[in-house]
Amino acid sequence: MKTSNLDQAGTWLRRHGFTDASPTPLLAARLAVRRRTQLGAQATVAATILAVALTYKHSQREAAAHGFGLYGLPVLMLVMVGLVAVRYALDWWVRRTDRQWEQTLPRRVTYPVRLGWRSLLGLPRAAITATAFLGAVALAMYALSIPDGTARYAAVVLLIAVCGVAVGMVVQLRHVLTRPVVADDELSLDADLVMRVEDAKDAASPALLWIMPISSVIHSNIGWWNYAWSVFVALSLIAFAVVSFATVCRGTTARSAARQATGVTVSR
User: Fold this and answer.
1) Which of 62, 183, 184, 219 is buried most deeply by CB count within 10 Å?
2) For 84, phi and psi rounded to 5 degrees?
3) What is the pTM of this model?
């Protein structure tokens, strides 16, 4: 185990209120693989935005002439499939690491009930994320009703992108909810739940949805749509910030969410 990984695990423990705990190789390894997958996820997001922008730019003339850029749409669909596949592979990497360490534990402790999405995300955060996707779909569907080839093509591009992001988010959340608990005492059990909550919040973040319009909507030069999207993103950001701030102020942090389930079940 690298010393740097142990040091970063100690910093993580102190940041989350585990002031009396010492970093263990188990925690350091699990956090290290999550840092690597986060870097991979960020690179995937950047590549997706670039691919959407390039696809829209190269097929914009065809869309203006024929109503739809048929050449660019299959490429965009492949990009979204690639996004989902990469996210699935990253989650599989985390799951495999957890299972490998789980096999080394002399005993395994867990909560008697499985925490669902309400405990991991919270209803307000989940509602904001769902509203953001529904709002994006509504704006895109409205643009499809306009007899303007450029607007309609930009709307189709956005709908494909939103669907791809939504599927990727569902895949990630499913991995988080079904991931096995890897813990052998109460401290590692709390740390496991904290990581689970953080993973769920990262998966359900609508950040990519907010950035995605830059690749198509802004480039479409449709004034009213640009204004509508700017207001929509601004309101979503404000609501998301308010919920995050209220969560911290009320003490409903990741560690307190882990305490919602009482009791410990011991196996092996």
Assistant:
1) 183
2) -65, -40
3) 0.78
